[in-house]
Amino acid sequence: MMKHLLIRIFVGSAGGLLIVVGTGLLFQPHGFYAANEIILGQNPSQLSEIRAPGALLMVSAIFMLLGVGRERFLQPALALIVAIYGSYGLARLLSLALDGIPSGSLVQAMVLELTLAGLSLIAWLRFGSTVPS
């Protein structure tokens, strides 16, 4: 039972972080990007392309948070954490190789994303069969 509690805390933390990121992208894109030394313009198309993934991240985070309260959602929530954080982290790693080193905060984000994805993958593989579906 303790491992389920730890998994729930982990999933809740990953989902909570994603709520913050998604909210920032959706409702405060200029400030959110400025924190990473990126200055956005006022182009509606650019802002639309930034806000849309914010909404996707928020919806994904809500699904992750369902895993905190309902065990049947834990395993899918872990898989979603692997998919979202892993894809963001790997894309940043690819960008680092192709484009050069971004701001320090984005390198830290990459490390955090890859760490969360890796821990989630381990939890999913190790405990997934013991979480009721």
General description of the model:
It is a single chain. The chain is mostly helical and 133 residues long. It has 5 helices and no strands. It has helices spanning 2-27, 29-34, 44-69, 74-99, 104-127. The longest helix has 26 residues, at 2-27. The two termini are 15 Å apart.
Which outline best applies? globular
Pick out the low-confidence regions.
none
Report the count of strand segments: 0
Number of helices: 5
Determine the mean pLDDT.
92
The SS-based structural class is mainly alpha
Instruction: Estimate what percentage of residues fall within beta strands.
Output: under 5%
Helix content: over 70%
How would a crystallographer describe the biggest sheet?
A: none
Alpha carbon gap, first and last residue: 15 Å
Rg, rounded, reads: 16 Å
Spell out the helices and strands N to C: HHHHH
Question: What's the helix and strand layout?
Answer:
Blueprint: H1 2-27, H2 29-34, H3 44-69, H4 74-99, H5 104-127
Helix pairs in contact: 1-3, 1-4, 1-5, 3-4, 4-5
Summarize this structure as a short list of keywords or feature phrases.
133 residues, mainly alpha, 5 helices, globular
